[in-house]
């Protein structure tokens, strides 16, 4: 059922498991409120926040209200919105308490005329996903006259095997098209803009292939360290936390063929094809194509910071990577021979999510000055922080002779900071209500990405790394630069 992109006011009961947690307070409630404020949600909406604590509705509403006030500037209509928010104390592993949740849900359904539409959002640790979805079915909560949808956050499994187990369990209660796996990167406007840039511009679309493109670089760097997530991060690391999902998703968007329509199934089908064309690495190829790193102490923005191994809840001999860069090859007609470089890391020089498309040199330099290299033509897509795009071209210098100089054409989005992540969640929550799964991860995509990442992980587990191997406040270990220089390329650091 594909609803039009413009449909608003979809009645729905939204049940958030883990409603007292950080994600709910920082992202979900502010996003839902914003949707309500902009008239995308109306009176026919009810939200149940589920938690283990003994709260009354009043106490819970107060908490939600203060988190919205903290994260949203304009809080007009906040009281009207709060009337739709309820608290329900519930132990997710106790089958009995789902019966009372069912009767409460039915009450709200008739009170707000929700037409039996139900959205279950699991903002909790992944070990509960399977249990909750099983009980939702056995209690009859999924047996409804309207739609039922399940929204889950990453990590989805810790390797292919665990992801398959979890998926099989969820599929007992929900169909694939009812499962929405959130990847908040795909909710960012500029990431969604990649498709528009590519397919709506006559100057890019014909060039988007191995004839004209030399390489594509995708960077997602953070200045922050692991903060208070040491325990979680130890079990995942940058490969599972970033590469398996966000980074490979962005590569899929950059490399996919034009879909036959903008229906979510057609877009997904193209992404799956790309991910299936990723060249799987042999264990001995991992070392040549992937680099891992872990931050040492150093200076970030002039402040001294500690090494990863000295962080809270991190083992002192930890081999968890906080940095990964890699060289990907896509074996298909369009991309044969074009390396895709990805890198992501913590405690790096700057905070940025950026794509750089580097075009090939013109076959013969102007007037045969073969000793002078022209500056590269680049298309830079800045996803964060200064959202926008820029083109780097060569033009004639304003002096006698024909020397060239690089010029830059830039477009930056308006100053109002569009990149607060509330926006990404807002887009995604609204998509869930509309039933538009374009910007969510399909099981087939997950399967391909885990398959790819598992080989790297297994190889790394077998070999001890020499950590820490990069100073905080730098762009990662030296090996990451060598990865590109072997191909005659370099990272475009500090380019805007």
Distance N terminus to C terminus?
Answer: 41 Å
Structural class: alpha/beta
Low-confidence runs: 1-5
Q: CATH class of the largest domain, please?
A: Alpha Beta
Count of DSSP strands = 17
Listing every helix as H and every strand as E from the N terminus to the C terminus, the arrangement reads EHEHHEHEHEHEHEHHHEEEEEEEEEHHEH
Strand content: 15-25%
Spatial strand sequence of the major β-sheet = 8-11-12-7-13-14-15-16
Q: Work out the radius of gyration.
A: 24 Å
Describe this structure in words.
By secondary structure, the chain is of the alpha/beta class. It folds into two domains: 12-153, 3-Layer(aba) Sandwich (Rossmann fold); 186-419 and 443-485, Dihydrodipicolinate Reductase, domain 2, CATH 3.30.360. The chain has 13 helices and 17 strands. Strands 8-11-12-7-13-14-15-16 form an eight-stranded mixed sheet, sandwiched between helices. The chain has a six-stranded parallel sheet with strand order 3-2-1-4-5-6. Helix 8 packs across helix 12. The model is unreliable at 1-5 (pLDDT under 50).
């Amino acid at each position: 059922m594909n609803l039009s992109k413009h449909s608003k006011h979809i009645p729905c009961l939204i049940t958030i498991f883990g409603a007292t947690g950080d994600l709910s307070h920082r992202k979900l409630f502010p996003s839902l409120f914003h949707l309500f404020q902009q008239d995308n949600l109306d009176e026919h909406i009810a939200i149940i926040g589920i938690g283990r604590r003994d709260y009354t509705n009043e106490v819970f509403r107060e908490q939600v209200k203060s988190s919205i006030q903290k994260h949203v500037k304009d809080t007009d209509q906040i009281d009207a919105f709060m009337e739709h928010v309820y608290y329900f104390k519930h132990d997710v592993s106790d089958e009995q308490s789902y019966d009372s949740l069912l009767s409460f849900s039915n009450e709200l359904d008739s009170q707000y005329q929700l037409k039996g539409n139900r959205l279950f959002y699991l903002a909790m640790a992944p070990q509960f996903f399977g249990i909750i979805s099983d009980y939702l079915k056995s209690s009859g909560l999924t047996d409804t006259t309207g739609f039922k949808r399940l929204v889950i956050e990453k990590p989805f499994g810790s390797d292919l095997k665990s992801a398959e187990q979890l998926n099989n369990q969820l599929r007992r209660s929900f169909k694939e098209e009812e499962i929405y796996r959130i990847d908040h990167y795909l909710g960012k406007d500029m990431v969604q803009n990649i498709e528009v840039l590519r397919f709506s511009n006559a100057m890019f679309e014909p060039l988007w292939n191995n004839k004209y493109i030399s390489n594509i670089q995708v960077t997602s760097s953070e200045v922050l360290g692991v903060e208070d997530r040491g325990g979680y991060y130890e079990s995942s690391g940058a490969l599972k936390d970033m590469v398996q999902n966000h980074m490979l998703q962005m590569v899929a968007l950059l490399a996919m063929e034009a879909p036959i329509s903008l229906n979510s199934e057609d877009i997904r089908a193209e992404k799956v094809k790309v991910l299936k064309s990723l060249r799987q690495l042999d264990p001995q190829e991992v070392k040549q194509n992937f680099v891992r790193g872990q931050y040492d102490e150093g200076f970030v923005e002039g402040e001294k910071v500690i090494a990863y191994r000295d962080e809270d809840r991190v083992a002192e001999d930890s081999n968890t990577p906080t940095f990964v860069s890699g060289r990907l090859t896509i074996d298909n007609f369009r991309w044969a021979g074009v390396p895709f470089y990805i890198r992501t890391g913590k405690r790096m020089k700057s905070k940025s999510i950026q794509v750089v498309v580097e075009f090939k040199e013109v076959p013969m330099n102007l007037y045969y000055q073969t000793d002078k290299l022209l500056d590269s033509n680049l298309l830079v897509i800045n996803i964060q922080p200064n959202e926008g795009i820029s083109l780097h071209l060569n033009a004639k210098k304003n002096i006698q002779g024909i020397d060239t100089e690089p010029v830059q054409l830039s477009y930056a989005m308006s100053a109002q900071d569009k990149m607060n992540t509330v926006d990404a969640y807002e887009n995604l929550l609204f998509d869930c209500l509309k039933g538009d799964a374009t910007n969510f991860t399909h099981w087939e995509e997950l399967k391909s990405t885990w398959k790819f990442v598992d080989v790297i992980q297994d190889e790394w587990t077998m070999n001890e790394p020499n950590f820490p191997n990069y100073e905080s406040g730098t762009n990662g270990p030296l090996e990451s630069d060598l990865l590109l220089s072997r191909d005659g390329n370099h990272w475009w650091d500090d380019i805007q």
